[in-house]
Amino acid sequence: MEFRIVVAITIGILQLIVTAVNSAAAQPLDEASLKERAPRLINLGNVDGKNYFVDSSISRNWTAAKTYCQSLGMELATIMSSAQVAFLKSAYNSTTFIYTHWIDARDSFEERQYTWDNIGVAVTSLSSLPFGVGALRYQTCLSYHAATSPQISIYECETSRKTLCQT
Ligand SMILES: *[C@@H]1O[C@H](CO)[C@@H](O)[C@H](O)[C@H]1NC(C)=O
Ligand SMILES: *[C@@H]1O[C@H](CO)[C@@H](O)[C@H](O)[C@H]1NC(C)=O
């Protein structure tokens, strides 16, 4: 009888712990813990239900930037609406949010990436041919260039840039 009660209580406690761990993992926006793990990460604010975070303290290659965001329970940033474009433009700051930051886009090794060189027309007419990727490594990645007139800049993926994460 007593043994059963002890087992029941133990299981109850374990379930509480599992619940606590799960909810911690589901909340990357725990500001206090983020401050501890990434003291120089700056929260740019909220748009379309997500927060953008910038790390200007260390420059990394694209792969390392993606891993860095994921290590904080986030992802490399995407910019997928005019609200997000406007938000990032208004977040420009000449000390804290300036120059180039990796975002979550890189070359695709697909037909749509190519143009017939002489005529400037997209290579879409090959669709009856299989498109072979071969053993290439990713070469070009996209960055968001924060400025008063922002733009998307293409760089070689192994070059070092700042990092733009999102929740
Ligand atoms: C840029 O960021 C710094 C540090 O957070 C802040 O003091 C300053 O007011 C900001 N500048 C603008 C133009 O928002
Ligand atoms: C990216 O940076 C990491 C960490 O410095 C390094 O180990 C890795 O080889 C780099 N990757 C590329 C493709 O340059």
Automatic annotation (TrEMBL):
<dbReference type="InterPro" id="IPR016187">
    <property type="entry name" value="CTDL_fold"/>
</dbReference>
<feature type="signal peptide">
    <location>
        <begin position="1"/>
        <end position="26"/>
    </location>
</feature>
<dbReference type="InterPro" id="IPR016186">
    <property type="entry name" value="C-type_lectin-like/link_sf"/>
</dbReference>
<dbReference type="Pfam" id="PF00059">
    <property type="entry name" value="Lectin_C"/>
</dbReference>
<dbReference type="InterPro" id="IPR001304">
    <property type="entry name" value="C-type_lectin-like"/>
</dbReference>
<feature type="domain" description="C-type lectin">
    <location>
        <begin position="47"/>
        <end position="166"/>
    </location>
</feature>
<protein>
    <recommendedName>
        <fullName>C-type lectin domain-containing protein</fullName>
    </recommendedName>
</protein>
<keyword id="KW-0732">Signal</keyword>
